[in-house]
Design brief:
Number of helices: 17
Shape: globular
Low-confidence stretches: 200-204, 425-433
Strand content: under 5%
Radius of gyration: 21 Å
CATH superfamily: MFS general substrate transporter like domains
CATH topology: Growth Hormone, Chain: A
CATH architecture: Up-down Bundle
CATH class: Mainly Alpha
Distance between the termini: 19 Å
Number of strands: 0
Length: 433
């Protein structure tokens, strides 16, 4: 199949055509995720079931992440995204068939979430690593902010649409939407070539050398290790809190599907506001200062949500909005900092390793939180997570390596490039093909 070659002078129409396909895919996934989570909530009413479903969705990324990154850096990233999105669509189609036959059980949902997560574990490192080759460096923060705004749109439109479809369609009909939107995401990738770094040299055994190089690069970057440790600790508490929001709405606030949709809509509005602010402003000159400030305020929002009395649901709405505004500041700034200071040919490995390390504590937190929330209530995890984020985010300002993440990363990148030139004097280093 003939594909359109990448033209750096015309990057905007090409990039946003691919990006637009991702918009549809993300929205479809958000609709289906809302419907499935609410189905599990109403069918079982169990925190353990909800956290088990989340663990099933996390495990592939945690276990396979370190190994996937090296493959992403060696394989054609466009083809990786095509295959990954196709796998996700096929998995959803299988679950739709189970609902059509009226034999769907919670464990079926676990299995499909696991399969979808495998696809996502390949797709997102490939997309993030490709973005730095599709977008000029001066636009990294703005694109990161735009991506966070996209998350917000999905949170605004997905929950109410998911609630409406849940009430008006059988589950197989709702799941069919995700299959269609995944196809829309794949379509631009079939016709537009995605730029890629210089192929990793050597035979198949070079894969292990590439894998080891990714580990060495991460381990030699103290500031990045500090960020990973903070993120892992926060995710230990944040992941259970996020998965338990449906129970917080149904048990604590005595609400229904539309109350949950309203809470997530406001979170999405905050996402858009924060993402657009980051897109227009770009954050502080030192991106990590923006990220750490965002973490502190996210913690404040989660703490407020956990402390909100049963009768003050509007206060919970405000807390969700505040958290939504600050999440793009934290996530988008960290992503832009890593993209700006990491060699393009190493980014697949770095994003996979970092993502896996950050998520490593999440299954443990979920395994503990499910039974405890069933026994003591769900508010405990929101309070603990909020306090932890405020404390860790504030203390990180005192750690030089974290605050100077970009500067140190740029030095490591320069040293690596100098070493490569010494070993192979005629090599030109990573480049866009």
């Amino acid at each position: 199949m003939r594909t359109l070659k990448w033209d750096r002078s015309q990057w905007k129409p090409l990039f946003f055509t691919i990006w637009g396909g991702q918009v549809f895919s993300l929205l479809g996934s958000r609709v289906v995720q809302f419907a499935l989570v609410w189905w599990l909530t109403k069918t079982t009413g169990s925190g353990t079931v909800l956290t088990t479903a989340t663990i099933a969705a996390l495990l592939p990324g945690v276990v396979l992440g370190p190994f996937i990154g090296a493959l992403v850096d060696r394989w054609d990233r466009r083809r990786i995204m095509i295959v990954a999105d196709t796998l996700i669509a096929l998995s959803t189609a299988v679950l739709a068939a189970l609902f059509l036959l009226e034999i769907a059980e919670p464990w079926h949902v676990y299995m499909i979430m696991f399969a979808r997560s495998i696809g996502g574990a390949f797709h997102w490192p490939a997309m993030r690593a490709s973005t730095t080759l599709m977008v000029p460096e001066q636009h990294y923060s703005r694109i990161a902010g735009l991506n966070q705004s996209l998350q917000g749109v999905a949170y605004i439109v997905g929950p109410p649409l998911g609630a409406i479809l849940y009430e008006s369609l059988p589950m197989q009909g709702v799941l069919g939407i995700d299959v269609i939107t995944a196809a829309i995401a794949v379509l631009p990738l079939l016709f537009i070539a995605v730029p890629k770094p210089k192929a990793a040299p050597g035979p198949r055994r070079a894969y292990f050398r590439n894998l080891a190089e990714g580990f060495r690069f991460v381990l030699s970057w103290p500031g990045l290790l500090g960020v990973v440790v903070i993120a892992a600790l926060l995710n230990f508490l944040f992941a259970p809190a996020s998965s338990l929001v449906p129970l917080l709405v149904s048990d604590h606030f005595r609400g229904g599907a539309f109350h949950l949709a309203g809470l997530e809509m406001v979170l999405g509005i905050g996402f858009i506001a924060g993402g657009l602010l980051l897109t227009a402003w770009g954050g502080f000159k030192r991106r990590m200062a923006t990220a750490l400030l965002g973490i502190v305020f996210v913690g404040a929002a989660i703490l407020l949500l956990g402390l909100t009395p049963t009768t003050l649901f509007p206060l919970a709405i405000f807390a969700a909005f505040l958290g939504g505004v600050m999440l793009p500041m934290a996530n988008g700034s960290i992503m832009a900092a890593l993209q700006a200071s990491t060699p393009p040919d190493l980014q697949g490995r770095l994003f996979s390793l970092v993502g896996s390390a950050e998520s490593a504590m999440m299954p443990l937190g979920l395994a503990i939180a499910g039974p405890l929330s069933d026994k003591f209530g769900v508010n405990l995890w929101f309070i603990a997570g909020g306090v932890a984020a405020i404390v860790l985010g504030s203390l990180a300002f005192l750690v030089r390596g974290i605050l100077r993440l970009e500067e140190d990363g740029a030095k490591l990148t320069a040293a690596r490039e100098a070493s490569m030139e010494t070993e192979t004097p005629d090599a030109s280093g990573p480049h866009v093909e």
